[in-house]
Amino acid sequence: MSTAVSAKDVKALRDATGAGMMDCKHALQESGGDVEEAMKALRAKGLADAQKRAGRAANEGLVHSYIHTGGRVGVLVEVNCETDFVARTDVFGTFVHDVALHVAAMRPEFVSADDIPEAYVEGERAIFIEQAKDVPEHAREKAVEGKLRKHLSTVTLLEQEFVRDQNEKKARTIEDLRTEIASELGENITIRRFVLFELGS
Q1: Counting CB atoms within 10 angstroms of each CB, which of 26, 50, 56, 106 has the fewest?
Q2: Are strands 190-198 and 60-67 parallel, antiparallel or unpaired?
């Protein structure tokens, strides 16, 4: 027998998560009215749904420009979604703006790990091998790969911590943010490319 839940609780959960009314109602019923458990269930469902959508074509979206204070740094970013309707929503527009602002502040070099050329990876690995000469031989490879992985995450947009979350206890990566927005909007959202311009460089 499912737990009776109030419309007030359903609305509160919907406001907190952005999930649909029926999804919120079912999550509360299944959790026996436990809001925390309902939120966890909705998050898990949202992530699962976002993964299902990842293969769908995303050919709509926005190209957005962001000029940093003083006009010394500018960013162009292309973010795609599935429909023109979603592309025109405030939620999508805010996400695209946040991505451009993040690029201006954190200066990633690549969108994802798949975009990193093998030559770049090997060049960085050679640097870390040189730096690890004093590390005992049995631990050297692990040390090099650890440093390499950490470095690649700092130059990859999707793996960077969102600039506005950096003072938070639980900072989200840009990939976390993208997944949240895809779940909220119900479409596949992809960051296609970006270009950063800096005065004099």
Answers
A1: 56
A2: unpaired
